[in-house]
Task: structure prediction
Amino acid sequence: MKVPRGEGFVSFEDIVYGIIEKKYEDLEDFVIVRSNGKPLYVLSNAVDDIRDRITHVIRGQDGLANTPKQILIYKALGAPIPKFAHMSLTLDPKKAKISKRTHGEIVAVHFYKEHGFLPWAFVNYLVLLGWSTPDSREIFSREELIEAFSLQGLNRANAVFDVRKDDPKFFTDPKAISINTHYLRNLPVEEIEPYVRAELEKAGIWDPEYQGTKRDWFLRTIELIRSRYHVTTDFVTLGRAYFSDDYPIESKALKKNILKHEGLKEWFPMLADRLEAIETFTVEDTEKVIREMAEEFGIKAGILINGIRAAVTGQAAGPGLFDILIAAEKRRVVKRLRNAVTLFE
Result:
């Protein structure tokens, strides 16, 4: 296609980059049809948009260079010119384009579903890659985002997807995990319950009674333990002991909170007997029994508290111990404390 000659130029207003001008003298004549008669992308794309009555072309900034040529095609065909918005690209920390070929499954949507991301949390994260509000707000409900979003908020600078390959702490962009954590900990528990259920079913530890007679317990337990979780898969890893008797004990918790204190081999069965004897298994009564026993044997209450936590949940940290005991329920607490003596063998 012949480019007009002379002092003229192609001009258009990009919603993101503003007024763009390209002098005719800086444009070379360009091919729009191959020798075999098949059209090239620059022509096909423009004709498709004209046929489909496209009013806005929103694409990556790497398409910006083709725009003056496409505008010449629009004009040559007597078609209205759509509005253009060229979005910044998403790059990795080394400023390379994100692609599945280069970065693997970590840039695939199904990866985040499999790793415990809530759907809307992931959408919330993605929209912040290359877009922002004047007040740099980060958390939006669906309705709030629809109201706040505008093409004018698209950034010119490329976004960075902070891929951290083989990072033991963050399996993906820390900002994505942070946003998912916010939703996991703050949404009404009834909204995250289906995702927790899906994880339990996948792990083979779902109890149908969690939808029946134990539903209230199930919701209370989710509410109790979610404050330390980042993804829904945490409910079947860190939180497995709440839903199954088959759970591992962290090596750190085992060494520091159990095996370090030889006396627990004797104290665990005694604690089991005393907790079993409680008529009303409440936070207040369980705390009283444990603290009185610590005083009786002249040891710090923390030794019993941390040991019980490790034995009952397999974890070194978590919610308050006495809330944990109520959630785990008397029968399981007593059984696990009696079985804990085998950890010394």
